[in-house]
Amino acid sequence: MGKKKLVETRCSPCYINNLFTHLERHNEQGKLAEIEAIGFDFLRRVPQWHVKQSIMLQLARAYEVETDTLRVDAGDIHITAELIGNVFGIPSRGEPIPELQKKDESHLAIKRQFQKKTTTQLQDFLFACPMETEQQRMTFRRYFIMVVLKMFLNPTSQQTIFPWHLPPILDVSNPRRFHWPYHILHWLREAIRKFQDENRETCGGCMFVLLVLYFHLLKHGPLHACRVPEPWIVEWTTNELDMKADYVIS
Fold first, then answer.
1. Chain mean position to CA 70
2. Nearest to 86 by CA among 233, 184, 221
3. What is the DSSP string of 215-241?
4. How many CA atoms lie within 13 A of 173 on its CB side?
5. pTM of the model
6. Which of 36, 63, 109, 129 could be joined to 41 by an S-S link, Cβ 3.0–4.6 Å?
């Protein structure tokens, strides 16, 4: 009999930290400035933390999808876009992300460009992408947003890009205007629903945000009364996460 596959989550804070470390090490100031311009520089605060799968999966099982409530030993947490905004220090408001229009030629061109691409291919282009023209910068935005969504904010079990991954990169003229915390919450909810209902071996969605909220509750008490300055993620360094994870596991 073959060895049973380990159940795991897909969200990778380490990947995001390494991505920014690479850009900084190679002095990619143009790309770092572009990331700041589109409002995604909050990801530079993500620590290089290796996910403790046992904790993440317990959180996935403790999430009540119907009410968006995380039921943990320290108390219930009603997960909202506002709380996700607090974690990352980004506005919990904005426009909805546009849908893929099957008859829109510009949308179809993006679909042809990205569909079936692997994360490795996206990353390679991200690092090699020139930044000399406006069109090149828009292309960089699409590759960057897709990579961070695929690996951290909206990860899925699929190894390649499918049409349902594309809406967030259809219009990158001003990504700041979109309601990113709600988008993160929506994908997290659906990923956990599939994990619970379909007995899947992997769980997508940004599980790291649930971990930070759980640890924040343990450290500071009820989150609605938390007066810790945003973003809450800056409080959780690699060492802090390891210490808290070891305590929870023990």
1. 18
2. 233
3. HHHHHHS-GGG--PPSPGGGG--HHHH
4. 2
5. 0.94
6. 36
